[in-house]
Amino acid sequence: MTNFAIRAFHLDLRIQVMTPGALRALADELVGFGFTTLVIEWEAAFPFRSHPVLANRYVYSRREIADFLKYCRSIGLKTLPIQQCFGHVEYILRHDRYAHLREDERDICQICPQKADQALPLFKELFSELMEAHDSEHFYVGCDETYVLGKCPACAARAAQHGKSRLYVDYLKQILELVNAMGKRPVCPADMLLKHPEAAGLLPKNTLLVDWNYGWAADRFGDPQPLRDAGFEFWGAMSLRCGPDNYYLTSWERHLGNFRDFVPYCRQNAYQGIVLTSWSTSGIYGFEWDTFYEPVAMHPIRRVYPLKGFRLLQAAFAKAVSANEPLEPAEFVKAYAKERFGLSAQHAASFHAALMADASPVYKPKKELARPVGEVLKSAVSAKRKLQALRPVRNASEFEHFKLMAAIRENYLHFKLIEEITESAGFDQKRRLSAIRELKLHLAKERGLARDFSRLTKGYLHPAEIASENGWRSRKWTLLLQTLQQNRTAI
Description:
By secondary structure, this protein is an alpha/beta fold. It folds into 2 domains: about 5-320, TIM Barrel (Alpha-Beta Barrel); about 330-485. The protein is about 50% helix and about 15% strand. The protein has helices at about 20-30, 60-75, 90-95, 115-135, 155-160, 165-180, 190-195, 225-230, 250-270, 310-320, 330-340, 345-355, 375-390, 395-420, 430-455, 465-475, 475-485, and strands at about 5-10, 35-40, 80-85, 140, 185-190, 210, 235-240, 275-280, 285-290, 295-300. The strands form 2 sheets. It has an 8-stranded parallel barrel with strand order 1-2-3-4-5-6-7-8, surrounded by 5 helices. Helix 7 (about 190-195) links the parallel strand 5 (about 185-190) and strand 6. Helix 9 (about 250-270) runs parallel beside helix 10 (about 310-320). The protein is globular and about 65 Å long.
């Protein structure tokens, strides 16, 4: 059994770049929950001196970074940076300066592992700046989900001769040795090593492997026991925002169940650290291209409701980690509602019922796997009404986020019903006019929800970000309305 020497919270700033004031408030909250470490994925929000072209429009100033990290130190919260250096590097490889490092010219998510000699100088410079700023004795190397591994001809030939594990490990080994040489202990995700473990023994033995599990079988990527037997130390990771969560769906029940099940697993297997991840997006991007697939602009695939709305799951994770017994999700949610919002036992039960509403996705690539929109909508309407009927005595602003998420989901499902009609074989000019009226009605409701969102996230996200998030949420339906309004061809 272990009490977890490291209790970390992972903050994803790839999109939804929080204001400096919001960062400080989060740090205070994390310390209050017993977290020891803040894992920060700055990505393009970090002001690299040596590679300024990587910055996005919300990049922090060097003074803002220094002030925040100094504040974390003052309250006893260590800061551990993540630098993606294998997969999930679209934000680097989109630029001409680094294009020669791509594994694939069209799927520009990954470094070619055969080009380590060219990639290592880049990452040494990025690592150096991040290490200089942060105080953790660890350094987190992003190397997960390298799904185009072995795609280029040179990599395909090497994988055919030596196996994918050797292809992956030979590159990762050089990255980890660089981290060690720079005086930090490397941390890296375990998923690809679990899938391809054959050459894992070549890696530095002080490497900490992160076994991330968001609610599935312990051996989904592969059996971790052989790596544990080989002497590798493990941390476990769970999530409060991950797929299929998006703006229209939050899987409260799944996340709570994840804490209930995986925290005891980590204890039983003597994991020394534990991490709560919070993904603002999937880490996958769509692109606007010019001729010869020259990247013009990059857009995140999947957005989720801002972290500000998920204090309940932070508290649930903290409870699961600190308690000797597995978390009881229903009991926890009801207790949280009573203590945090001052609700009666009856109203706390209603709050719990609202959060446990049907969280099924209604869109899937294989349509036969999707739940009927009408059935899911009934559950969403019921959940919204339950929340709207409750009157919190305390922390009303936090409670507003639950209500807004429920209202956004309900309105989205109305849009999906309209979309079903417009995509049906019987859709004609007469139905077009009806669909236009319905779209206008729900787009008007969305504008009201956007005003609520702006009010609740003011000072938390940048104003331009708030506008962007609001615009994106209704973009598909706005485009559909424009199409229907323009299509006036007589039958």
